[in-house]
Specification:
Length: about 190
């Protein structure tokens, strides 16, 4: 309660101050009221506004516009550079794809060449092996023929020796035909 009594006393004191101030204003008619609008005041306000506007235009507006223009140029340059880099990257991607394609084609060609070379080498080796087998077969046939000829020659020589021996025995024995035949058959069986 003491607070509310104190507040009401302050309110009364404030009201008295306002009344006394209003009374004093009425006593000073020659003073200028700042709330009144006068023609001179409007002109001076516009003049000061124009001077302030001109000063701001010279001092602040040009540098601000210059800074904005410079920033716009930098942004545009960055956009142009980014576009240029994007085109270069696209070009590099295309170049890379082309080189990869060429490398794959070259790898396929190398593999095909290697495959053909391997088949050719296998064919050459097979032909060489067939030729060597043919040569070995021919050599074996020649060796067999030579051995057979040698054996036949040895057989002829031996047969001739036996025939001489037989003839010598026949002459020494001087037998008749029947005895000659029997002796010949006996000698043939011994062979």
């Amino acid at each position: 309660m003491a607070d509310s009594a104190h507040n009401s006393e302050q309110s009364k004191g404030l009201a008295q101050v306002i009344e006394s101030h209003a009374v004093h204003e009425g006593d000073h008619h020659g003073e200028v009221n700042p709330m009144e609008i006068s023609g001179g005041m409007v002109i001076w306000t516009w003049v000061l506004f124009a001077i302030t506007l001109l000063a701001l235009y010279k001092i602040a507006w040009k540098p601000i516009l210059g800074a904005l223009d410079k920033r716009e140029e930098e942004i545009q340059e960055s956009i142009d550079n980014a576009e240029k880099l994007r085109r270069e990257i696209d070009g590099l991607e295309a170049f890379k794809a082309e080189k990869i394609g060429q490398a794959e084609d070259e790898a396929k060609a190398i593999m095909e060449t290697g495959r053909k070379a391997a088949h050719e080498q296998a064919r050459v080796i097979q032909e060489k092996a067939q030729d060597e087998a043919l040569i070995l077969t021919e050599n074996a046939h020649r060796d067999i023929e030579s051995s057979r000829a040698t054996a036949e020659e040895a057989l002829r020589i031996e047969s001739a020796q036996w025939a001489r021996e037989l003839a010598g025995k026949l002459i020494d024995a001087n037998l008749d035909d029947e005895k000659n035949r029997a002796l010949t058959d006996k000698l043939i069986q011994e062979l």
